[in-house]
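Dear Dr. H.,

I hope your travels went smoothly. While you were away I took the liberty of generating a structure for the chain from your last submission, since the lab meeting agenda had it listed for discussion. I wanted you to have the full record in hand beforehand rather than looking at slides cold. The sequence, exactly as received, is reproduced here:
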Amino acid sequence: MTDYPTSFDRDDLLKCARGELFGPGNAQLPEPPMLMMDRITEISGDGGEHGKGHVVAEFDITPDLWFFECHFPGNPIMPGCLGLDGLWQLTGFNLGWRGWKGRGYALGVGEVKLTGMVRPDRKMLTYYVDFTKAVQTRRLTMGVADGRVEADGEVIYQVKDMKVALSEA
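The corresponding predicted structure, in token form, is as follows:
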């Protein structure tokens, strides 16, 4: 494993978005407003339910977030795809945290269940990513993980078999 810390604040995440954390051409988070977390509270390469690595992160919800105004006027809801994107972002971040090289990109997800909504009165989302596989070979660098998103402690999104890869091309 690398010498990176096991938790990151917002400033660290913004460094990652600028390409300063893992180095140029390597795993990078998007900048705001597409950055879907405010801090990573736990990360590992050998923890989680399957012993293959995990990430736990938090996103503070405020009524003035950009998506509430447009999705939907008069009925503000965070798009579920943004929660999924947050899970993909964290999966790729974990691969970079491991010291693996290349730019991250989502490959897909096997199953998605949306059972709740994020409205402006929510306070915090908590993301949980649990790796089922992390592979680095000469030709392939990829993570496969299950994930869930909780809003104020209530499970609202669940995914199975998220896939994120790193490519140096």
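Two observations you may find useful: The chain has a mean pLDDT of 96. Residues 32 and 120 are 18 Å apart (CA to CA).

With kind regards,
E. W.
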